Amino acid sequence: MPSLVAELQLGALDQQQSVSGLLRKALVVATKLKLKDFETWVAGELEGFPTDVEVPRHRVLRGELRMERLRTGWTPVRFQSAEERDLVSMIPIRESTSEIEALVAHVSGSDKNLTFPVPACVQSLLDDQHQVPVRALLFVSPTSLIGALDAVRNQLLRWSLQLEAQGIMGEGLTFTAQEVRAAQSIHVTNNFSHVQNAQVQTNSTGTLEMTVADQGQLRAVINLLDAANNEIAGLPKEDRERLDRDLESLKLQLESGTPKRSIVRASMASIRAILEQTAGSFAGAVLAKMSDLG
User: What is the pLDDT along the chain (294 residues), one digit of tens a residue?
Assistant: First the structure.
């Protein structure tokens, strides 16, 4: 019977072996070797990454933003610069690996693109720009998802080879104390990236950065929303998902160190519209703090 590490290597080399199956094997290895950071990454790939956690770079996909037009159908959105286009064409994929594999299988052999909803702040800015509500989606090629799966497979293969180079094999489904100690010296880098896929510039005024004082107020709004998990859980599903997307956009802006007023205002307007129809002290507290921010 092959060792745990050898079995992981063989699976990584076998394209018929699902990536989710490989991750389960890697979870066993990482847990037995007491590699907490690697175990956390593997668990995120298996279960999906929540909205308050960064995603690895291989989960940031590039798509094409399109608007639905009456005469021409889905038409690519035009931007003033390539930088603007790139800022809104990147999307973090947070679904579990098994869900990603199912998506790939669903569109395999066809020329279909996958579509994803745009962040609420992008939607709001597009509506403002066209002065009427518009329907917009981000179109992503299935090959991008395949690339994300291959990145995980390659990472697991490289990791297993590093373990083998240190004499760490896991014979008999167990690791010796010496192997566990040796594994702690192996460093694997998973590149994480904040994704700010919501920066559509409509004019120069909209790109002004927020002051330090405003950033403090923004942080207070975010903290209030984070502390209201129970109340938010009671919202209708559509409102809850929309609020989650807006909250993630605010966090990304704050973490960037240079939040853009136009993006923050669009997200805040979307959140305000939800909370104004919500009863409860938490909604009042958040709305009051939002009014301080302006």
Answer: 789 999 999 999 999 999 999 999 999 999 999 999 999 999 999 999 988 788 888 998 889 999 988 788 899 988 777 777 777 788 889 899 999 999 888 887 777 888 888 877 777 777 877 777 888 899 999 899 999 999 999 999 999 999 999 999 999 889 999 999 999 988 776 655 444 333 322 222 333 455 666 777 788 888 888 887 777 777 888 888 888 888 888 888 777 766 776 677 777 878 888 887 776 667 777 787 777 665
Residue 202 has phi, psi (to 5 degrees) of -105, -25
